[in-house]
């Protein structure tokens, strides 16, 4: 394909603008990392800086003390994230596909039932009672998996929109005429054709599980089942209490500011490492032309 | 459209029978408890299955692993099984999870027996039906507990109109505004602080030091409070209304209208303008300890002024040597005498047994030592002075269990002291408590329900100006007037009237 | 009579249709069961807005109190400011996130260098992995009056330092910037996936017809993005009375002097609950937010139904 001059110019513009945007996005992370390795007193006296005068890894040393707990918490989070994301995408796809069909009887009511859950919520206490007294999942891994994160009405509606707009109904019709059952259509047509949206909501769901500490806070008090975010959150808050109310329990001086930054960095790290590997699923989806042809 | 909403609600309504059932399972337990309390206190039935007491405590630090807690409770249970035919199921939560957990458990009516609570939450938790009235239970099963306080008034300070919702932890009961100077600076310039009594004296010292250390902050502040320079008894837990000079007087005032608040904010503003206060204090979330240990500041105010506080504060400042000077007489009020208290939840299956267990813990040195320091030989050893120390080669982070925070446990005064605290730490503390002045409103807790809306509105107004005023960031001449006027618009006077009414009733009942 | 017959027939054909779609209904079962457990059963909590909840009496056993729980919020004199801030910020957020999200999505998909594109795609999502508490510390790193980077820069330029946390006028901008930084990636990645889903042959034939870049964006990309954009906007409208507590409370660090531009319904409710923790009060506040969000979604969905039926939510 011949590329026009205009195409080149617009691509150059895209490079320039995106570089600036990325600088804005990434700069705070650089500051975050640099302040995590700045010596605590220097941070207070000289202030935050990209080029700190005194470098110290005291914060990371402090975190390293609880490396066993952190590794275990990572394992919990990774396990929960993988299982939860897979289930989330599957459940969402299974509900979004039927709703994307204009002819489905009861479509509007069903859509409404899903949407309604986004608008009204019974609040924390009844949900807590449901999960602890009826389902009894307190202090189990299910408590990290189930509440609120397994399925999101928002994602279902987004996927529904995508499928309706991007997959022509004639494709389903011709498959049906060829004798394909609904499950086959779902597996052979919907999943591959909707790949880019499924990857997208997979990322959303994955980030949701990765970032979650609320479920842990409400439903997990056994510290051996802490997820990484819950563990780090507990660490950050404990430091805050210790420095604010004193009453130190003999743990010595804690580099509180740099430690917070270091903790934030530790929480992101695996995501930063893993994310590029997920990217390969994020390529241009199979074009419809190819399927049709 | 309407129909669809209805159907949604209907599904919810049909199914919630189960939920309501769960919440209601303990209906009337409180009264049952008091009925069983008729029996003889020492009557313990060793033939029945041991009763398991669910107990929850909170720590401002990471909690020990569950397996370590289990190791300690196994030891405790040996003692309690023998004496009470009960066992203890202990949960230890870090503060970061505590408040959410406890409110969820209490509102879902979970089977929790004994737990620690911030006393300030008492009135709303009593109002929500979370807490059992411990008054009759204490009379029946808690005589020893009652006797462990200087007076019954203090033992039952956490009460709302006579509904005793907890017994306070044992610690220093009073507060006493004090200033802590860095000793190294005092020595460097040869400054004598023995004659410092008032804020005027403090101002003079700052004047002197700032001339020699122009880059140093004279005082590090946070924005959580201000150094009350005169004894006062805050009413209603908001730190907004108070009775000044509460041994004589009983008039409720808006704190921000008082002369003493004006005096403080005027000094603070003057110091702020001179660059003597950390300029970010009004929005800072760092504590002042940080700036002392980093060497940026010279002094700070704190409301603990007892003789042992100096060492506590030094360790909070990373070992910086400090000199403490008291700026007011110590005063004990309901709030200062019971920062935290131990409560029995209304979800408790057997409040009488819970009370027996609490009474036992409060008075048993072995159990308290286990709770606070862990298992002898594993978590601590007894040294030649009869005090406790870490086993050879271990410290706080390497022993399996070490709470070391007696101020949040039921009764640290029966514990064996830790070697670094000194043998007479608990005697000294009790002596300090016995010598403190006690507010005539001790035991009074304000019931905010009649003026709840006004309180929400007023606290919102207060939040707007409070931090900036107490840290000196704004001019008090202008802002106090603004604050007071907006508080009045938000219903401040109705709150004061209600408080005055309740205070007068309390004093009348007391004198009868 | 004929009408009746037809009705019967259409009923029968409806049954047939339902039968035909039965496997599809089964596919929806897991999601619906989950919503029942996670959302609909706990919705009994909505009645707590009208009750004085006592743990011993349970949800249904507690006493009805009418609208008493609402009074702390609705009788408050600050209500107009709360409304202005909550709605104002939300409208800004919706518009900024939408416009910037679409622009960035188009720019990213224009980039041909695979590595750079992947990097760009990843980086816009990075802010997502940071909790809002950490964001508040990062903001403090820039705006701290003593140690912050901004004041260092100002001083280096010979200008007076600003005490950022005390001056209202900066905060609308700061909050909008922080919100955009944190959440523009969310919409952006949705729009990217929508663009990637466009049949590539459309662009090719447009090029053959001599369409330039902007024409292709205007006539192909944007129309394809429209349904997603409308859906996201409609869903955001339902949350217009809600606000991210972390953003409005943690990021300004609860600073008092700027509350007139930082307080929202959620921060007000939070402050009220710290003076008196009451389930009824929080239930009332969220009920109020939900009802307004619900009405707005209903209205806007009805309008969408009139204008472009296929894009309506239901």
TrEMBL record, chain A:
Transmembrane segments: 12-34, 73-97, 109-129, 141-163, 189-210, 257-278
Subcellular localization, as worded in the UniProt entry: Cell membrane
Ranges in coiled-coil conformation: none
Topology in the lipid bilayer: Multi-pass membrane protein
Domain of life: Bacteria
Span of domain ABC transmembrane type-1: 74-278
InterPro entries in UniProt: MetI-like, MetI-like_sf
SUPFAM superfamilies in alphabetical order: MetI-like
A GO-annotated cellular component: plasma membrane
GO biological-process terms attached to the record: transmembrane transport
UniProt keyword terms in alphabetical order: Cell membrane, Membrane, Transmembrane, Transmembrane helix, Transport
Protein family (similarity comment): Belongs to the binding-protein-dependent transport system permease family.
PANTHER family per UniProt: ABC TRANSPORTER PERMEASE PROTEIN MG189-RELATED-RELATED, POLYGALACTURONAN_RHAMNOGALACTURONAN TRANSPORT SYSTEM PERMEASE PROTEIN YTCP
Protein name, entry field: ABC transporter, permease protein
Species the sequence originates in: Roseburia inulinivorans DSM 16841
From TrEMBL, chain B:
Keywords: Signal
Record bears the keyword Lyase: no
PROSITE patterns: PROKAR_LIPOPROTEIN
Signal peptide: 1-20
SUPFAM superfamilies attached to this UniProt entry: Periplasmic binding protein-like II
Residue ranges constituting the DUF3502 domain according to the UniProt record: 441-507
InterPro entries on file: Bact_solute-bd_prot1 (IPR050490), DUF3502 (IPR022627), SBP (IPR006059)
Gene3D superfamilies, per the entry: Periplasmic binding protein-like II
Alphabetized PANTHER family for the sequence: ABC TRANSPORTER SOLUTE BINDING PROTEIN-SUGAR TRANSPORT (PTHR43649:SF17), ARABINOSE-BINDING PROTEIN-RELATED (PTHR43649)
Official protein name in the record: ABC transporter, solute-binding protein
Organism: Roseburia inulinivorans DSM 16841
UniProtKB/TrEMBL annotation, chain C:
Compartments where located: Cell membrane
InterPro entries to which the protein is assigned, alphabetical: ABC_transporter_permease, MetI-like, MetI-like_sf
Transmembrane segments: 21-41, 87-107, 119-139, 170-196, 217-241, 279-303
The keyword Zinc is annotated on this UniProt entry: no
Major place of residence: membrane
Cellular component GO terms held in the UniProt record: plasma membrane
Annotated keywords: Cell membrane, Membrane, Transmembrane, Transmembrane helix, Transport
Family: Belongs to the binding-protein-dependent transport system permease family.
PANTHER family: ABC TRANSPORTER PERMEASE PROTEIN (PTHR30193), LACTOSE TRANSPORT SYSTEM PERMEASE PROTEIN LACF (PTHR30193:SF44)
Protein name per UniProt: ABC transporter, permease protein
Organism whose genome encodes this protein: Roseburia inulinivorans DSM 16841
